């Protein structure tokens, strides 16, 4: 596997860091999760199956567990000795916390010059908000994406996805792999300052047009991606289901309106978003005349970007995801999210086993230390 021989020491908690290091474990890295005496918090958050939380199972598979009191000098010394042999160190605490523990970059790089040290925080290691506490919702609110998540009543809605967390995870993974690649040439490690807000802001190139071009925030309901384009919008069917049109290219509009018997409406779809209300009203009325099943049959074979709005359990039960191994079941009947990075050579080999809290203290520290 691509990361075989890479040792990762992970002090992070909750989602961004654990998700990042799980992806590394899936591709062969040895990931050592350092847990506080109380354990990783997600061991006890959310629904459980077969004795483990689903959240923990889908962020900690294939890892080893050390349970340490880092305020104890002896246990901290044991961890430092372990880090001396590590390739990657990941932490997700507020700036300054690692320095207070004597685990800051300067200390660790002096001991292990090849170490790639990754800090993931809400707002980064510098700047006015560096010490401000925040999880995903607060970061999204600070970054303007809750504002963009506007409901039909014109008020902001709580985002459905933890995109600041996952954006931070993916940016950290990319940065770590870049640093490891460079280290293969220089022999030197590096330090990564990953801000979840920075990572989220970097995901906005299709949203900042009004801001960068005209110095204003977008009118959400009139923008292309959020309802202003007739061919990029959600519609209700007669049985109170929903479908989406998700491709605003003119060819798709021409195909759709030709079959609906209104080819002239395709011309209106060439107008700017927010200027297509006539077409939106027509489609709202049209889609409300038939059930979802009827529309599925009607769209069959038609070259138009459309999809039903599936409930989450329906989406995860779809055969296509099973074929792609993005949802799979282990021998105990636990369901798992799969590996999205698919190599032809040396593909990931998922180890679904979860570590008990402190299970590897003895083998890794060779001290018999109990959790």
From TrEMBL:
Membrane-spanning residues: none
Gene3D superfamilies: Crotonobetainyl-coa:carnitine coa-transferase, domain 1 (3.40.50.10540), formyl-coa transferase, domain 3 (3.30.1540.10)
Domain of life: Bacteria
Molecular function via GO: transferase activity
Swiss-Prot/TrEMBL keywords: Transferase
InterPro entries from the UniProt entry: CoA-transferase_III, CoA-Trfase_fam_III, CoA-Trfase_III_dom3_sf, CoA-Trfase_III_dom_1_sf
Keyword Transferase: yes
Designated name of the protein: CoA transferase
Source organism (scientific name): Microbulbifer agarilyticus
């Amino acid at each position: 596997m691509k990361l075989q021989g890479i040792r990762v020491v992970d002090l992070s908690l909750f989602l961004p860091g654990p998700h990042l290091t799980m992806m590394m474990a899936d591709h062969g890295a040895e990931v050592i999760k350092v847990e506080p005496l109380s354990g990783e918090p997600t061991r006890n958050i959310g629904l459980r199956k077969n004795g483990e939380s689903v959240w923990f199972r889908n962020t900690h598979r294939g890892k080893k567990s050390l349970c340490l009191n880092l305020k104890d000098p002896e246990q901290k010394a044991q961890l430092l000795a372990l880090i001396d042999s590590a390739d990657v160190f990941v932490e997700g605490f507020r700036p300054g916390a690692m320095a207070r523990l004597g685990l800051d970059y300067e200390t660790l790089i002096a001991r292990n010059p090849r170490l790639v040290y990754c800090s993931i925080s809400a707002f980064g290691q510098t700047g006015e908000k560096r010490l401000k506490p925040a999880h995903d919702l607060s970061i999204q609110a600070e970054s303007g994406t809750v504002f963009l998540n506007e409901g039909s009543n014109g008020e902001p809605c709580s985002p459905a996805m933890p995109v600041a967390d996952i954006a931070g995870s993916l940016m950290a993974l990319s940065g770590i792999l870049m640093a490891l690649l460079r280290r293969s040439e220089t022999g030197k490690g590096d330090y990564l300052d990953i801000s979840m807000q920075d990572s989220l802001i970097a995901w906005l190139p299709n949203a900042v047009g009004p801001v960068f071009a005209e110095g204003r925030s977008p009118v959400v309901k009139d923008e292309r991606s959020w309802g202003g384009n007739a061919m990029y919008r959600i519609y209700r069917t007669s049985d109170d289901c929903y479908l989406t049109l998700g491709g605003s290219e003119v060819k798709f509009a021409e195909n759709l309106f030709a079959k609906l018997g209104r080819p002239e409406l395709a011309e209106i779809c060439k107008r700017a978003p927010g200027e297509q209300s006539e077409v939106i009203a027509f489609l709202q009325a049209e889609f409300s005349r038939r059930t979802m099943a009827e529309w599925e049959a009607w769209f069959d074979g038609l070259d138009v970007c459309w999809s039903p709005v599936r409930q989450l359990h329906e989406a995860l039960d779809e055969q296509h995801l099973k074929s792609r191994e993005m949802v799979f079941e282990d021998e105990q009947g636990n369901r798992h999210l799969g590996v999205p990075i698919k190599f032809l050579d040396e593909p990931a080999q998922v180890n679904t086993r979860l570590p008990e809290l402190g299970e590897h203290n003895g083998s890794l520290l060779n001290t018999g230390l109990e959790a």
